[in-house]
What does this fold into?
Amino acid sequence: MAEKIIIDTDPGQDDALAILLALASPEIEIVGITAAAGNVPLTLTEKNIRKICELAGRSDIRVYAGCDRPMEGALVTAEYVHGWTGIDGATLPDPTMPLQDRHAVDFIIETLMREPEGTITLCTLGPLTNLATALTRAPEIAGRIRRIVSMGGGLFEGGNITPAAEFNIYVDPKAAAIVFGCGAPIVIIPLDVTHKVLTTRSRVAAFRDFGTAVGEAVAGWLEYFERFDVAKYGSEGGPLHDPNVIAYLLKPELYVGRQCNVEVETVSELTRGMTVADWWGVTDRRKNALFMGQVDADGFFALLTERLSRLR
Ligand code: RIB
Ligand code: CA
It folds into this structure.
């Protein structure tokens, strides 16, 4: 029985690979993809999702636009990493598949209320505004969610947009606090994992060696996307964040983590968006999340490469 998922995403080259991995995997049924504002504004992320789906030949996927700004404050974007389109590095035609009329928040609520309890997984790859808004408007959906698997946060790795905060959490810390506190089972894939998954030359070449439109696009995206982090960290390649969320669904044995309490700083300007994970159990706060710390990077890339090679 395929796992039914909603992907909430702000493409983003790494989001694109996560979407393609899900589309290439028969273990997963994508009920819908909801666009978040994050790496680039919503008007671009919703279009990027449709471009990515059509690259994979999946114009049947239902795509919904969500909130265009965080629950509080102004939107922070990351064109300096992803380029002005959000998916610079490959040139894809404008989408012809439709954007659904329903708002993403309504779609999330309606799907969770319609589908049997415990059958829908939320995979979040961007700021958590859409899911947090749905939880605020309809708190009863929390008990109906099978699990939330979320790329975001950091502990021993620190932050990537400030010394303390990872981008997805930083953009909407209030939303992250709502989601982390909602009571649904949560798996967090933080920078502590994604910074161990680097796009080396040979790994990028393996995609281009497909000789397919997907392989060419993926290689171009990674070569563009990694340049910022290579310059910043002085590493051979850049960390590949979002596909780890889907890889966890497919092969959870690639990851090692710890059930612990994870809270979000929402008040301090200095540490806004910091994920405070009680890794050593020094508090009696509820252990609300499975916080990942280790990954089999070679195993991850073997899975990602094999699956994406199936897309023509
Ligand atoms: O910090 C990395 C995360 O922020 C990734 O999801 C990337 O796509 C951006 O959204
Ligand atoms: Ca993302």
